[in-house]
Design brief:
Blueprint (H helix, E strand, L loop, with lengths): L9 H13 L15 H19 L3 H16 L4 E7 L2 E15 L5 E11 L6 E7 L3 E4 L10 E8 L4 E20 L9 E17 L8 E17 L21
Parallel strand pairs: 2-9, 5-6
Antiparallel strand pairs: 1-2, 1-9, 2-3, 3-4, 4-6, 5-7, 6-7, 7-8, 8-9
Helix pairs in contact: 2-3
């Protein structure tokens, strides 16, 4: 399968952010943002708990992605409702994207986007986690995750004690719209944060340790997902802004 790695530029993003700040665009009261609420903080706390569980299981990357999902909620992004088909069953999930613009190991500009989608009211009962550093990427072996054209996907059904990982298929996650400044971001000159909307499409085969007998197809038609785009404005790399008012945020990648 051919993958598309469209060049990403921190300079272009910086110009877009500046134009957004100056333009007469929708404010943080649009349908892509919300002020801090009990519901959003409850959801954020649930994702923080998932991050803690992932850390205990020895998966720091998943822990970081769940923390980033919680951060996006606290920064003011509103989860999108999306349709996901799991083993032939069409289900409704809520999803959010956190995109972090950074310099890659080779010095090139990259934007790592993580997508967290869940079902459940008080606490997620099923969770789908996706991550990629390119508009179009493919799932593959775990030891190939450093490849910029590789995507990562995990699925957990806590009631059935099932945990699966994507081993084949593809993920598209393209930045569609860069919106207004995140309404709940702290005044930190090192970071810029904007609300955003991504177009996502998933078609993956998930299993446990490459066991074909456990293989499940998880897919979604192309759909819009709300989230945030964060980047450093001081030339640095890594770290995260703080949402205010909010709990302290992790600063690791």
């Amino acid at each position: 399968m051919r993958t598309q790695t469209r060049p990403f530029s921190l300079l272009a993003l910086g110009v877009a952010v500046a134009l957004t700040a100056c333009a007469d665009l929708p404010t943080a009261s649009n349908d892509n943002s919300m002020p801090p609420t009990t519901e959003s903080e409850t959801l954020a706390l649930s994702l923080d708990e998932l991050a803690g569980d992932a850390a205990l299981l020895g998966d720091p990357e998943a822990a970081s992605d769940f923390h980033d999902g919680a951060l996006a909620l606290r920064l003011g992004a509103v989860p999108s409702e999306i349709g996901v088909t799991v083993a032939g069953e069409e289900l409704r999930f809520r999803a959010i994207v956190t995109a972090i613009a950074m310099r890659g190991p080779d010095g090139a500009d990259v934007m790592r986007r993580s997508i967290v989608a869940w079902r459940g009211v008080d606490r997620p009962e099923q969770v789908l986690r996706l991550a990629a550093r390119a508009d179009e990427a493919v799932f593959g072996p775990r030891d190939a995750s450093a490849d910029p054209a590789r995507a990562i996907g995990t699925f957990a059904d806590f009631a059935r004690h099932v945990r699966l990982r994507a081993t084949d298929g593809s993920l598209a996650s393209r930045l569609e719209t860069l919106g207004s400044v995140c309404p709940n971001g702290a005044d930190d000159p090192r970071f810029a944060c904007n609300l955003a909307r991504f177009e996502m499409r998933l078609d993956g085969l998930f299993d446990t340790t490459n066991d074909p007998s456990t293989r499940v197809r998880i897919s979604s038609e192309e759909t819009g997902v709300s989230g945030v785009v964060i980047h450093r404005t001081d030339g640095g790399s890594g770290g995260r802004p703080t949402a205010t008012p909010a709990r302290p945020q992790p600063t690791g990648i």
